[in-house]
Amino acid sequence: MLKSYHTPNLLEAGLDEVGRGCLAGPVVAAAVILPPDYHHPILTDSKQLSHRQRDKLQVDIRRDAVAWAIAEVSPADIDKINILKASFLAMHRATDALTVRPEHLLVDGNRFTPYPMVPHTCIVKGDSLYLSIAAASVLAKTYRDELMAQLGQTYPAYGWGQNVGYPTAIHRAAIREYGTTPYHRLSFRLLRE
Prior knowledge:
Oligomer: single chain
Shape: globular
Distance between the termini: 43 Å
Helix content: 25-40%
Number of strands: 5
Low-confidence stretches: none
Strand content: 15-25%
Order of helices and strands: EEHEHHEEHHH
Mean pLDDT: 94
Strand order of the largest sheet: 3-2-1-4-5
Radius of gyration: 17 Å
Largest sheet: 5 strands, mixed
């Protein structure tokens, strides 16, 4: 059973990102503030859910959340600052975009660049422990998957509708045959292998 809040009596935003290991597309983060007593019967880490469950959940989360926001960092910026910093930047941008200022941030993972004047707690596998982080994982994943499916219509050879930019055999074979697109992360070592 996932927990509602890590720090009772503080307005907490859960933060998660998706797309760090991809060869193409932006890294995307979401920030979600849920009501303190929130419960959803199937909300958990987005990786444990089916496509259909995530699609249903993202509608429910957007409707029920106190506030939510999604942000991205482009492949060009990932190449400039590196993927770890880009992940933190996406989380900062998502926090910036919230319509309600959180009093505490719950961050999925073991590292984070502090956000100005809002304390944070990093939680490894937080998306399987806290509802707000799980909700952020669902919003980030559904947003990014849809974006990559749309980009895949322009670049069908790379299989982004299925692999969403991850280094699958089809994706890597297409890079070898057709080269890279403006959406590829040129700094990633796998692009040069």
